Amino acid sequence: MSQMPQLSACPSCEEPLESGDRFCGACGYDLSAVPARPQDNPTITMNGSVPAQGAPAGAYPEPPSVPPAGVAWPAPGPDAPPPPGAPPAAEVRFDHPPQAEGHPAPPGGYVSQPGEYPAQSETYQAQQPDEYLLQAPDPRVSADPAAQAAGAGGKVCVACRAGRVDDDGYCENCGHAQPRERDHMEQESGPVAAVSDRGLRHHRNEDAFAIGSTALPDGSPASVAIVCDGVSSATRPDDASMAASKAASEALLAALPRGTHPQQAMHDAIIAASRAVNSLAAEPATAREHAPHQNAPACTIVGAVVTSGLLIVGWVGDSRAYWVPVDRSAPPARLTEDDSWAAQMVAAGLMSEAEAYADERAHAITGWLGADAYELEPHTAAFKPDRPGVVVVCTDGLWNYAEAADEMARVVPLDAAAHPLHSARVLVGHALDGGGHDNVTVALVPFPAVPQGAGSA
Questions:
Q1: Which of 152, 223, 376, 411 could form a Cys-Cys staple with 306, CB 3.0–4.6 A?
Q2: How far apart are CA 295 and CA 141, in angstroms?
Q3: CA triplet 186, 192, 197: central angle to 5 degrees?
Q4: Furthest-apart CA atoms within the chain: distance in Å
Q5: DSSP-derived secondary structure for 135-160
Q6: Distance CA 327, CA 306 (A)
Q7: Is 51 helix (H, G, I), strand (E, B) or coil?
């Protein structure tokens, strides 16, 4: 059996490969389909001569241009073969198949001239059947492979539409990695909307969000949005972000109707999210022994609570919240400060913001949720905007492509407050068009809060 060529990266998605991989772990590309590298020595030279077996490169015999002394080439006749090494006869076409006598050429096609091609022999024509007989299908077996897979209780591959998808998410027939439920998520809850996408480079989506609407004790509306970004260097980052977003959202939606002040409710929600992530680290001892070098599950968090006259944000890590007014003549603003190496350099006056974020250490976070985090310090801030606007709650997968508040305001659609879901899709598309190097998640919360039942038209 021929050995598969050794590849360092997938020919389809350029994801790094390991030795012995038969399929790409990111896109499922069949690596055995990559053609093997051709031999260095050709078997037939350009002039048509065949080299001797085992002849080294460059040692192929050259055909004689004239007959040897005492030998004369036979005079060419109508059926005489051309001499060895002689060029093909003039006016002979090799780009059209021969036409047998009595068979007209297709309209517009090339018509061979008499004597150009020898007519096919009757014996050869008799050996070619008009139709090739195929075995009749077994009526006991379904003709639709997809129906077979579905009948077996499994999912059908979206690529080949024939194979069953195994428990690991790969097709048993073609090996294609199947789309995961979290690869692209959209949700709209009253006036709030959020979109999350895996991006173009990562093999899974490690972001998560949770949105909702509720009412305060006085009956006025309140909107909630939570966005979390899993730390890729930790274990189970996708589980960490999902657990944190769910715990924080549930805490806020339970505390606000009871009359808890929104800023205190946000602080308590971040604490609840931290506890949910910490609980993921309570794995069996055997799991820690098999992966002693891996960190505990971790993620960042940012959230917003919007009422009829108050805007509250809370965060830990480098996920952000921006304020974009409906009247774009008013200035936008970034509402959060990153827990990152770059932010510390800027705060200490050691580097300018442009210099700090150009450094390769810029996105190293100094605060996160997780069992191995430093002392947890939830950040919260309260604002009272004097005009309508929209709050953009997002991960760095978006703000990497619109970092400054002015840049973010330029990519947020003008009707974002009225059509938050469409606008969230536009923002995710902006990040994907920019390269999509990371997971992308964004939630849009209009200010002031809109009563439940109102949303994008």
A1: 223
A2: 50
A3: 25
A4: 118
A5: PPPPTTS-S-HHHHHHHTT-PBPTTT
A6: 18
A7: coil
